[in-house]
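Hi V.,

You were right to ask for the full record rather than a summary. Here it is.
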Amino acid sequence: MEPNIGAEAKLEVRAGDEQDTTAAIETAKATKLDAGLRSLDHYKNKLPLWRYAARQKLIPLVRWETQYVAKLQAALRSPVLDSYFSITANLGTHTFFMIFLPILFWCGYTNLGRG
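Predicted structure:
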């Protein structure tokens, strides 16, 4: 499975920087991402002590279960489910509410928009 390289990398390919993009993809493949994308020192310095302690206790569980969740997701993956989860993931975003709630008020469903 190819990593999601994002819009910036796709723009680089269009601009002709194919070698840089290829190197970035190879680096992403070689890098094993862990729970959180920053170093452990970052979390120790930035989080309150109680959150850092809870994180340290939960990290081994997350590392253990990640491989099983990834296998399950790979086995159940389908275009229909991909579309479904992409759409439903966006239903809780700020953008969705800023677009959808005014429509409710505009159409006269003010009680639904407030509740």
